[in-house]
Each structure stands twice: as structure tokens, then as C-alpha cells.
Amino acid sequence: MTKLRFTVKLRSRGTVFMNRIRHKRSSQLTLWLGLAAAVAVMAGFLHFTSILAEKKKAGTYNYLKSVPSDSTLRSQLKEEEYRVTRMNETETAFRNKYWNNTKPGIYVDIITNDPLFSSLDKFDNGTGRPTFTKPITPDSVFEQPDNSHDMQRTEVRAKLSNSHLGHVFADQTSPSGKRYAINSAALRFIPTDQMEDEGYSAYLAAFEKKE
Fold first, then answer.
1. Average pLDDT, the chain
2. Between β-strands 115-118 and 131-132, what pairing exists: parallel, antiparallel or unpaired?
3. Which of 8, 91, 115, 195 has its CA 20 to 30 A from that of 136?
4. What number is the average pLDDT over the span 31-38?
5. Could you give phi then psi for residue 188, rounded to 5 degrees?
6. pTM of the entire structure?
7. Under a CB-based contact definition with an 8 Å cutoff, are residues 182 and 121 in contact?
8. Of the candidates 148, 94, 147, which has an alpha carbon nearest to the alpha carbon of residue 124?
9. What does the CA dihedral 110, 114, 119, 125 come to, rounded to 10 degrees?
10. What is the H or E stretch that residue 73 is in?
11. Closest Cα to residue 94, out of 122, 68, 130?
12. Phi, psi (deg, nearest 5) at residue 28
């Protein structure tokens, strides 16, 4: 009887010992698999980052954003930005972000990031709002009649976001004969030293020629 108990006890201890070994091996295997997965994720991230950097440098990076729902825009945009872009209002002259901005760079749609105007075409005509001789490309905006407030004007809207930008007027002081009076609240300015990082390197050539 004593011998049987000893044998059972020995087998029990052996089982516990083997289970400990298996558990240790399993833990080590899990650890190595976790490390391998982490290395794979990091390698993939670095590869993606490298590709993204090359695309930004080549000017092929897709910087455009889709147009969110109206409720999302209400929460994302500042009150004045929403009123200008979605309710066709006009910001106060000389009390807006870019009316006297003289830094080189481009102005993009605050909603979609689509390039709209360039500082190379910006001029000061004393109206207290950002004023340009032309859009950065003809396809970035569209114009339509505006008879609001008992006036006959030509409204300028962003093509992709359909945001109200401002108005265009005939102006003999402008090299193009036109004055695009645009609301700062509809724009986001990107200086030339940040254009490549944000994917707008294709537009840097114009500034290099100017220099």
C-alpha cells in the first residue's frame, strides 16, 4: 500500500513538473510570437511611411479629404467657418486671419484640403480681406450669380466642397482684371516650408521660378 502511494505521489509530482515545463515553453513561444508580430508591424509601418514620404516628395500624395455630413461639419468647424462656408456669410473686414498675410504659400479649402489660391497671386487692394488675381487652377472653383442683399454679384465657390468662398469683381488694378475677394474662414494657409510635408510639393515649382 505504501509503495502504491509513493508511486502515485511520484507520478503526480512528475505530472506537475511536466506541466510546468509545457507552460514555460508555451509562455516562451507566446513571447517570441508576440515579438515577431511587433517587428512585422513596425517593419510594415516604416515601409508605409517611406512610401508616403516618396509620394509627398513626388507630389503624388492624395491630400484630399471627403466632404463630411453637415452635422459633422458643425462639430468640426469653428462657428464663423461654418457660417461662411455653409451659410454664405461674409466675415468682418480687417478682422480675419489672412487679410494681411504676406508669407509665401498656398491657400487650401478648409474642408477638403483642395488647393484654391496662391500667395503669388495675392495682392492688397485695401478691402481688408484676402484678395487674389486668380485661382490656383481654373478647375478649383466655380462662379455663379448672387442676387442676395439686393445686390448683383458673382459668387465664388469651391468646386469639391461646394463651400462659399467669396465674390469676384472686375478690377482694373489687378493684372488679370479680376479681384477674387475671399473669406479667410474658408481657407487654410500652408507656408512653402510645409508644403512638401503636407503633399503639395507639385506646387513648389512656381515659387522656385519666382525666386
1. 83
2. unpaired
3. 91
4. 68
5. -130, 130
6. 0.72
7. no
8. 94
9. -60
10. helix 70-76
11. 130
12. -65, -40
148 vs 16: which has the higher pLDDT: 148
Half-sphere exposure of 109 (CA within 13 A, CB side): 27
pLDDT at 63: 78
pLDDT at 125: 82
Q: Which residues contact 169 (CB under 8 A, 6 or more apart)?
A: 153, 154, 178, 179, 181
pLDDT at position 51 is 39
Q: Which three cell numbers stand for residue 4?
A: 502504491
Q: Has residue 92 got a pLDDT over 60?
A: yes
Q: What is the mean pLDDT of residues 180-204?
A: 96
In 3D space, the residue among 184, 141, 143, 145 whose CA is nearest the CA of residue 160 turns out to be: 141
> How far apart, in whole angstroms, are the C-alpha atoms of residue 1 and residue 11?
15
DSSP secondary structure letters along 142-177: EEEEE-GGG--EEEEEETTT--EEEEEEE-TTSTTS
Burial class (CB in 10 A: 0-12, 13-18, 19+), 107: buried
- As a whole number of angstroms, the distance between CA 156 and CA 162 comes to 9
For residues 118-131, average pLDDT: 93
16 pLDDT more than 70: no
Residue-range domain boundaries for the chain: 1-58, 70-210
Superfamily of domain 70-210, CATH level 4:
Peptide methionine sulfoxide reductase. (2.170.150.20)
- What is the widest separation between alpha-carbon atoms in the chain? 116
